[in-house]
Design brief:
With 164 residues, the protein is α+β, with helices and mostly antiparallel strands. Helices cover 16% and strands 39% of the residues. A hairpin with a 2-residue loop joins strand 2 and strand 3. It binds manganese (II) ion.
Length: 164
């Protein structure tokens, strides 16, 4: 186990199109039943000697991440494209190099615009609690804000079978 860290190369070269040498490119949380669409994950840094992970997520045009909350935090930097971001009860337009802090237990979701992918770095604790999905009551409370309701409509319409 301690040897695992030792074999991580000290340099991974950037490839083309937001890929990195030796980094697996994975569909995000495929199969766990959480509502999301058209998003991939690459774990760029994960080492037991450093208590955090840095991932690169990319959401295809019109796609979105899971609407969720949890105790652990995220620090996000947009590296590609633009989109919308829900943090707590605020909706923001985000674009290249914007920084987003997602505090503990804030509802959050990122959505790509219809015409471009949204790629972002996400820094997260390596030891972290399991994300919670919104209940019907949580969704009603979120929708009480018209801006948040309009934002959620974008992902709810796109995946009706997973939000019933
Ligand atoms: Mn999250």
């Amino acid at each position: 186990m301690s040897d695992r860290a030792a074999i991580v190369p000290s340099l991974r070269r950037a490839g083309s199109d937001f890929r990195w040498d030796g980094v697996d490119h994975l569909p995000y949380k495929a199969g766990d039943g959480a509502p999301f669409r058209a998003i991939s994950r690459q774990t760029l840094f994960s080492d037991p000697r450093l208590q955090a992970e840095l991932r690169y997520f990319e959401i295809e045009p019109g796609g979105f991440s899971t609407l969720e909350r949890h105790e652990h935090m995220h620090a996000v930097m947009v590296l590609r494209g633009q989109g919308l971001c829900l943090v707590g009860t605020s909706v923001h337009m985000v674009s290249l190099h914007d920084l987003v802090t997602i505090p503990p237990f804030a509802w959050h979701q990122l959505q790509a615009t219809a015409d471009a992918p949204l790629g972002f770095l996400c820094l997260v604790n390596s030891a972290r609690d399991r994300p919670q999905l919104p209940s019907a009551d949580d969704l009603s409370a979120l929708r009480a804000d018209p801006l948040v309701a309009a934002f959620l409509e974008g992902s709810m319409k796109a995946a009706p079978s997973r939000c019933g």
